[in-house]
Design a protein that fits this description.
By secondary structure, this protein is mainly beta. It has one domain (6-79). The protein has a 5-stranded antiparallel β-sheet with strand order 4-3-2-1-5. The two termini are 16 Å apart. It has one helix at residues 54-62; strands spanning 6-11, 30-38, 48-52, 72-73, 77-79.
């Protein structure tokens, strides 16, 4: 994977003990995700930080849906 590459995937976190408020409700959410940066430290070090592709995020906002996360580690995505 390279910077800004996209993948269609489902949010399926391997752990739920470190999720921020509201994120648990989004488990199973399917979207086009975009590689944003390589995580440099912590338990996800070396993985891509993935965010919802901008056009899709804009569509969700227009529908009144606000994502409770800015990014998720690549390991928490299940490719479709």
């Amino acid at each position: 994977m390279n910077l800004f590459d996209t993948v269609r995937a489902r949010f399926s976190p391997k752990r739920i003990d470190d999720l921020i408020d509201g994120v648990i409700d989004w488990i199973g959410f399917e979207a086009t995700w975009q590689a944003l940066w390589i995580i440099e430290e912590g338990p996800y070090k070396g993985q891509w930080a993935m965010g919802v592709e901008p056009k899709e995020a804009t569509r969700l906002l227009e529908e009144g849906l606000i994502l409770p996360f800015a990014w998720v580690p690549e390991c928490d995505l299940e490719r479709l």
